[in-house]
Amino acid sequence: MSVTTPPEATTPPSATPREPGGITRSAAAARERTAVLEGQIARNPGEYRVLTGDRPTGALHLGHLLGTVANRVRLQDLGVEMFLIVADYQVITDRDDAGDLPATVREVLLDYLAAGLDPERSTVFTHSAVPALNQLLLPFLSLVTVAELERNPTVKAEAEAALLRQKRGISGLLLTYPVHQAADILFCHGNLVPVGVDQLPHLEITRTVARRFNQRYAAARPYFPEPDALIAPSTTVLGDDGRRMSKSRGNALELRASDDDTVAFFRRAKTDAERVITFEPERRPEIANLLQIGAYFTKMSPEALAEEIGSAGAGRLKAVVTEAVVEGLRPLRTRRRELASAGPRHLDEVLARGNARANEIADRTLDDVRGLMGMRY
Q: What is the reported pTM?
């Protein structure tokens, strides 16, 4: 598929209708399907179009790199067509103050480019710059019920967090967040979405929207694909307080951090009282976290790294992981400083090109949708 000439009233192979519930019915099924997909990607990467992205709430951190960004670079380098959305509208789903969005969007873009995402091979764009996405949202909302949205476990969790943080109920934008994601994924006929197991319900909404649109408006020739879940080889990275790494919790190691900040971060990292290092994620989550981080940067398995350190203890583990992270992030940080020192013009040009590509595709898709719905006047 070409980024700039999207299909007109055609769909990729995965648009074939499937039984409702499909691949995202269970985590086990999604993992089994992922193994099949990885083989297909290796053989025919050009058959796949991925939509993924981030909310621009600040610079990216180590959890983003290990959890999503490294996998995006891998898919890009394999030849998969990548679309990366900087979802600025989604910042206001659960907060009143979006902060300095132009600055945070550039911070995210700096991290993308420094990590190896190539704007010549991956289309990077901002949500608010592609108006057709929000026009697609309207017909998509007619294809789901409020009850289906309210049952979404991720929406429930985010609503509870918003209530605790701002002492108010869920916003309409947060409730419809999964349908926004459906528009983001389907506008470019995305047929593959890297997700964690906890995000499978969101993707099921996208698949439901695609399936119902096809049944209602394109039964003879399905228009939208029902995207597959690609369970990313991701790691839940813990912050220095032992909780999941998060910008909002203030426990994150930003990719742009200095070497000294990195040393201090791992010095503060929680461990346990046992001397011998073993990889037991359920029983020893803090030790397992350090081993997984170290494994990523040393290209060892967590088990092998644990065996190598053995009775040398947590102090030695922290030293090994710190050195591996400092050296492993050095090229990224150097590249990031170079890009930042060049000023915002290059970043703005990257976004302008990506926004133009995304708009071309979204406008074509919206026109197709109007035609299929009998609304092309």
A: 0.89
